[in-house]
Every structure is written in structure tokens, then in C-alpha cells.
Task: structure prediction
Amino acid sequence: MHNYLDFEKPVADLEGQIIELKKIEGGEDAVDVTDEIQRLEKRSRDALADLYRKLTPWQKTQVARHPDRPHCLDYIKRLVTDFVPLAGDRFYAEDYAIISGFGRLDGQPIAVVGQEKGSDTQSRLKHNFGMARPEGYRKAVRVMELAERFGIPVLTLVDTAGAYPGIGAEERGQAEAIARSTEACLNLKVPMVSLVIGEGGSGGAIAIATANRVLMLEHAIYSVISPEAGASILWRDATRARDVAQAMKITAQDLKGFGVIDAIVEEPVGGIHRSPAEGIDKAADEVRGAFAELASLDGEALRRQRREKFLAIGRNL
Result:
């Protein structure tokens, strides 16, 4: 049974009817309702496709935050073999919000840095809902510098509501850590590809997303501030998040038009949470294509291309 979002009620009703009919079909007094089930399944598929063709920015925000959406560790498990995570920033502590380490993609070495939200209450608390502290970004820098030393490409998986805003994080230099991580991305002389898989929240995201190629899933979001926080600042009313989501242009489609991202990765009908394996495989193909495009560039060209890409954002709007 799916976790349905509020706008998916028409689909939820149809799929509920299908479940009831299948119970009748398999019960003691079995009745042949195959034709009716097939008819309802087609209606459900069509309704789902129609809904997801016309999602509003706020509905896309809900999809990007769906609890069943695959997270960083799901991508690593499916894409990366021989993955060895590295822990600690060598300054203060380990931060479980950021997963980083080395493995192989199609047999070739790769460094992976990603934000992990967790998939249940216990893991969400462990990973701090994907909101990294300064030590998380310093760990990311450590892994990126190791990748450059050994000539290994870097893949980052972005999925955070933002960097953790707690007092301890601020005391330990959150802003400086984010800036250093962004600087490390810009200075890399190895290919770097970022994939926004859910939420790309503010500096917490850009700290690991300043890449040669930035890809974004079809129903992900990427913004300078969360819709709720933006509504609280503008109107002192977080319930107006829907209006802010519309105004901020946070969807992949808008951001592609602005040149903030380079490509949109199509999701399965109804969102990647309905068919995680299919969606992750599609994203992997796009990642492979992006790395292939960068393979012919030397270190200085990669660094220059990355810097020019980000300096150009907003110049021609």
C-alpha cells in the first residue's frame, strides 16, 4: 500500500477499489472480476499520469519529500560496488547526515558524497534528517581532496532541507564549513557530477553541488530557502508556503530554463517512489552520460568550466 499524498486521492480511491476486488476474486466465494480489475487499473494509471503531468510547484515539493522516495544510501547500494565509507572530519566528529567514501561505478573508481535523510524514525534521527553539521561538510572536503589526489571522479547526491541551523553547528563554524566545501568543489581538477534526488536546500545543498554537471530528478526541488521558511520571513505565516513555492521557481523545469541545472532526469510515472529501481537506473544512465562528456577535459579545463558555469548563472536572464 502506497503512502498517498493529498492530491493523489482520486488514484488512492481507484487503487483501493482494485484491492477490494482482488480480495473478492481470491476469496471463498470467488467471482471473476478480472475485466473490472483491468478497467480500474487502466483508469488508475491514466489518472496518475494525468496528475503528474500537471503538478504544481507545491505538489512537486510534496513529492520531493515523499517518505518512500529513495535516498542516498539506496542509490549507493544499487549503483556503486565495493563502497567503502570514510568517517570523521579529522577535526571534531563524525556526521551521519553526509555519507562519503569510495567505490566503483561500472568497475571504475568513483568518490561519492551524499546527504542521507533516513528511511524510518530511527535512521532519520541518526542521520539528522539529512541536515549536515560543519563536520559533515569538512568530511566532504576531505573526501573530495583525496579524490583529486588520486584522480578519481566525484559524484554527489543532493537531498537536504538545508544545513543544520543549531547553536552548536553555528559555534563550530557552519557558514565557514559550507564556504570551504563550495570552494573545494570549485577547485577540483577531476570530473564532478551532482544529482539532486529530492530536496536541494540552500547552502546545505550548494556546498556539495557546485559541479561540472548538475542533474536533477523530474520531481525534485532546488531552492535558496524552503517554501515554509520563505513564507515565515515574507508574511510571518508558514501556511503560505504554497505561494512561495510558486513564486521561487524551484522546480527542475524552471531551473533548467534558467541554466541553474544542466539536465532533468525523467522519473517513473507517479514519481520515483513508486518504482525506485527503475528510477535509480534511469538516473545512473544520465550520470554515466555526464561523466562521459567530461572525460576528454584535463584538470585545468574541468576547473575552468565549473567556475564559468556558475559565474554565468543569472547573467542572461
Remarks:
- Residues 212 and 306 are 5 Å apart (CA to CA).
- The first strand starts at residue 81 and ends at 85.
